[in-house]
Amino acid sequence: MNLLLINPNTSEAMTAGIAAAARAVAAAGSTVHATQPTFGPRSIEGHYDEAIAAAGVVEQVRLHGDGADAVVIACFGDPGLDAAREATSAPVLGIAEAAFHAASFLATGFSVVTTMTRTCVIAEHLVHRYGFERRCRGIHGTDIPVLALEDGGAGCVDQIEAAAREALARDRSGAIVLGCAGMAALCATLSMRLGVPVIDGVAAAVKFAEGLAALGLRTSAHGDYARPLPKVYEGWAAPLGW
Ligand code: 5HY
């Protein structure tokens, strides 16, 4: 399987870390092509960042989507997910949606532990959009800046562990969803320390993508995920016109 893995922010260190997490779980014979936009925010920590990052995702799908058997958007806001699904027939998975599904197979309720508290509302919107409001029992910010995880986040593991313990107790949940692609490298350590399933959306999305590709399934071109209608795009977006 040829997997296109898009880190929607422009941190090369994070792209490398996310690619390593994906390759660690990818099946033999799967190739992971990791990319990031040529423009946009170094980290995504709010609606404004996300708006620009969504265009970056579309840029990367247009540049590298042909020939991909599946695409993974490796940012917990799943920026540009629907637009990407219009632009390619390859299955496109966001790491938040994939993590929610994985957690729901493993516990009746899960809690999300994420970075900046201000991004919790973005995760709440996704919980409702994907229909997980009865399974997600809480979303908790740590106010760890995304770029503090650029090196893999070892320096943040104790703080994330403490937030996860508090979430499990307060929410009475049975699993933890990591709310940032930059936390991927911490998943095994946190799971061992907490003794509950800890879900990294990057790994979950890669395995779900492999499954969909193996089943030969493609994104529907019927209805709202049909290809974009041809039209001219002006200015810097001209190359993205359909
Ligand atoms: C992420 N931001 O996974 C999100 C995390 C967040 O640049 N990569 C980012 O805080 O939403």
Quick tags:
alpha/beta; binds [(4R)-2,5-dioxoimidazolidin-4-yl]acetic acid; globular; single chain; 8 helices; 242 residues; 8 strands; 4-stranded parallel sheet
3D architecture notes:
- By secondary structure, this protein is α/β, with parallel strands linked by helices.
- It is built from 8 helices and 8 strands, in the order E-H-E-H-E-H-E-H-E-H-E-H-E-H-E-H.
- The strands form 2 sheets. The protein has a 4-stranded parallel beta sheet, with helices on both faces.
- Helix 3 links the parallel strand 3 (70-73) and strand 4 (92-94).
- It is globular, with a radius of gyration of 17 Å.
- The model has no long low-confidence stretch (mean pLDDT 97).
- The structure holds [(4R)-2,5-dioxoimidazolidin-4-yl]acetic acid.
- The site of [(4R)-2,5-dioxoimidazolidin-4-yl]acetic acid has 15 residues, from loops.
